[in-house]
UniProtKB/TrEMBL annotation:
Entry function: Catalyzes the reduction of 1-pyrroline-5-carboxylate (PCA) to L-proline.
Species, as recorded: Fictibacillus arsenicus
Protein name: Pyrroline-5-carboxylate reductase
Localization, UniProt: Cytoplasm
Taxonomic lineage of the native organism: Bacteria, Bacillati, Bacillota, Bacilli, Bacillales
A single MF term (Gene Ontology): pyrroline-5-carboxylate reductase activity
Amino acid sequence: MLKYRNISFIGAGSMAEAMISGLINKAGISPERITAANHSNVERRSELINKYDIQAVSFNELSLKNTDVIILAVKPKQAEEVLQQLKPNLQDHHHVILSVLAGISTPFIEEIIGKHLPVIRVMPNTSSMIGESITGISAGKFVKNEDLDLAQELSKAIGKVKIISEKQMDVFTGIAGSGPAYFYYLLEHMEDVAVENGLDREMARDIAAQTLYGASKMVMESDDSPAELRKKVTSPNGTTAAGLDALDENGGGKAIEAAVENAAERSKTLRKEFEKVPVL
Ligand SMILES: NC(=O)C1=CN([C@@H]2O[C@H](COP(=O)(O)OP(=O)(O)OC[C@H]3O[C@@H](n4cnc5c(N)ncnc54)[C@H](O)[C@@H]3O)[C@@H](O)[C@H]2O)C=CC1
Ligand SMILES: O=C(O)[C@@H]1CCC=N1
């Protein structure tokens, strides 16, 4: 069970913090069981200690003896270096490795560490912070059912979870990993135009965010598809039809598709760029 495992994050940036916050504040994981290790930023470590009461150390100080679950949360370009450094201290039948790194594959990680350790890719998003992530998980070749159960339990602690194949990871990243940014971008624009048209910013933000939240909840709770729900908003010759016409004329639908495709493509490119060790 997750609550009896010691978890070490390698990398202490935005994604590690979002997961730490969700694990402690939403899933009730004891902060004593969580350690975050970063490269050299001492202020960042103090910030995490003060905010969450976890242990935060430099990567060189991190002991893997008392760690059960290792969560890789550095940038994809740091994957190889960090894995090479971890390698001597990794133990079969002890450590489980979860990687949140966009693009980086489980065969690459398995190849570098050279041991039969369970490696699982998890792709959360920053809504983990409030327990509202949707996290994709895909298993490497040495993963047993109990390891997958653990990854699922951890992912459920920070939101919802979908088990996917590794091939689906790129598009999952394009939709869910990067997805919050598209919706923030949409909200930024709605807020700006609302302010230009006479609402104060705080009220505009609240209105736009609640509208997105309500629409999202409708999709999750009703039996209608998004297209059917859209039709129910759209009165003939009404305001919504006018708004949707403008979206179409300005390439709104195509722009959204292009955003997801470009992000998924970038995930593939990251793999090509940073997987220098040849994968068999
Ligand atoms: N930010 C997001 O929304 C999401 C990010 N991810 C993935 O999470 C990973 C981290 O992303 P962010 O947190 O946004 O980046 P970030 O730049 O905020 O954090 C990276 C962390 O890695 C640490 N680091 C760098 N080199 C290190 C080393 N040699 N040893 C130990 N720590 C080292 C840095 O000190 C920093 O704490 C990336 O691989 C990204 O693809 C995945 C899903 C969503
Ligand atoms: O922008 C990125 O590369 C990371 C992965 C998914 C969200 N943030």
